[in-house]
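Backbone-to-sequence.
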């Protein structure tokens, strides 16, 4: 289990944060953007000062803060070298920037989430956009987390709905992880998979109240997001919480950045991508063992050159990095392909069980709609072409075996 202590999600979290910091540090730095300074950062800074703690600030300015080279540099430049702890007063991006800066400066990192919008608060990796490519860079988890429920309640509903979308993504990320374990021999931990699925069950039960902005259920969602983050922390990688739906979401994010278009909330993209990935599961669900055998015998996955040219047309100048990272799964041939095919056939019963446990696409769409979250690419401003490109090329981003790979190996049409 993780040693993150304490985790406080309550109306008194602000007071708990101040006494925690006062007992340990004489100098803290509060990191926020314009909105989160108003809703949380300022109050934290003033309360710490009243408690006798010296307080510095890092203000990240701009319409849209991105965890990229520019904002990281901005943060480092404002960081006081004498500070003992960095407090992230913000949602996902502020937290990731603070996580990275505090880690590289070897200072304590405290998380003070301002929205139930994402499950990354408690994770170790910082998802950063470096030279236009989204990567998870090793850093550290917060040593403590204080989520003030009165602050979470005031967050714009689209942020809370995005948090619900991020949790709904665990439906396919866990199924993908189980496939990856059976077919690509990826490390797997069933207890962590079950803990992650519990976060889905709790959030799905609370979905209508989350949609209505009810306090108690927003706390349920926040606790689910924290638990999902702890599952990643305990496993030591993002695998439990990130499958094909996250790869598609990361792909869209990179394309929007490249084109200079405004970003879309992480969980909103993940929710929409999860609906698309559920359709892939439906395709596989229609096959019986005999059909799978026929498909494997009659299918040759795309060749190395063919996949490289797909990556070039989808990723442009980023293609070289993507090809390098994805090399083990490119142009599957020979003994590697035979091994995959054999494991699919041998484990077909177990694979079918995994596939059957993924709810129908329409059910997942209803969950999202009940929580007030988007379900279609058009609702979040994605063109049909970009949406489709994510489905076809998102899986090249990670060398993980997901339903997107299974569909290719089986020769099924993903689109
Ligand atoms: Zn996520």
């Amino acid at each position: 289990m993780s040693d993150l202590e304490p985790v406080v999600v309550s109306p008194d979290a602000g007071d708990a944060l101040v006494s925690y910091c006062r007992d340990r540090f004489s100098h803290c730095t509060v990191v926020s953007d314009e909105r989160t300074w108003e809703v949380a950062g300022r109050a934290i800074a003033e309360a710490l000062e009243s408690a006798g703690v010296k307080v510095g600030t890092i203000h990240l300015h701009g319409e849209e803060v991105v965890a990229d080279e520019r904002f990281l540099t901005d943060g480092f430049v404002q960081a006081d070298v004498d500070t003992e702890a960095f407090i992230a007063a913000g949602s996902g991006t502020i937290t990731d920037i603070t996580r990275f800066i505090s880690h590289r400066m070897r200072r304590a990192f405290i998380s003070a989430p301002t929205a139930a919008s994402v499950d990354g608060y408690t994770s170790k990796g910082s998802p950063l956009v470096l030279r236009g490519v989204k990567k998870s860079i090793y850093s550290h988890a917060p040593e403590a987390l204080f989520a003030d429920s009165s602050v979470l309640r005031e967050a714009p509903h689209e942020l809370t709905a995005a948090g619900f979308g991020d949790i709904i993504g665990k439906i396919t990320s866990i199924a993908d992880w189980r496939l990856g374990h059976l077919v690509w021999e990826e490390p797997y931990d069933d207890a962590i998979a079950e803990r992650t699925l519990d976060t889905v069950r709790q959030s799905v039960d609370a979905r209508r109240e989350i949609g209505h902005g009810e306090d108690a259920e927003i706390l349920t969602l926040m606790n689910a997001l924290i638990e999902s983050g702890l599952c990643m922390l305990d496993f030591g990688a993002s695998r439990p919480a990130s499958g094909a739906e996250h790869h598609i979401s990361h792909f869209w994010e990179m394309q929007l950045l490249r084109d200079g278009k405004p970003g879309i909330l992480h969980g909103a993209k993940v929710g929409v991508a999860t609906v698309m990935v559920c359709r892939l599961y439906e395709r596989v669900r229609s096959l019986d063992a005999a059909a799978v055998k026929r498909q494997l015998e009659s299918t040759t996955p795309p060749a190395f050159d063919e996949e490289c040219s797909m990556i070039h047309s989808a990723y442009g100048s980023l293609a070289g990095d993507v090809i390098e990272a994805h090399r083990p799964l490119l142009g599957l041939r020979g003994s590697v392909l035979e091994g995959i095919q054999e494991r699919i056939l041998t484990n077909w019963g177990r694979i079918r069980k995994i596939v059957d446990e993924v709810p129908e696409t329409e059910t997942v769409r209803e969950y999202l709609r009940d929580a007030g979250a988007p379900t279609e690419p058009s609702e979040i401003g994605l063109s049909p072409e970009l949406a489709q490109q994510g489905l076809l090329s998102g899986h090249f981003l990670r060398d993980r075996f997901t339903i997107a790979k299974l569909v290719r190996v089986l020769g099924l049409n993903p689109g």
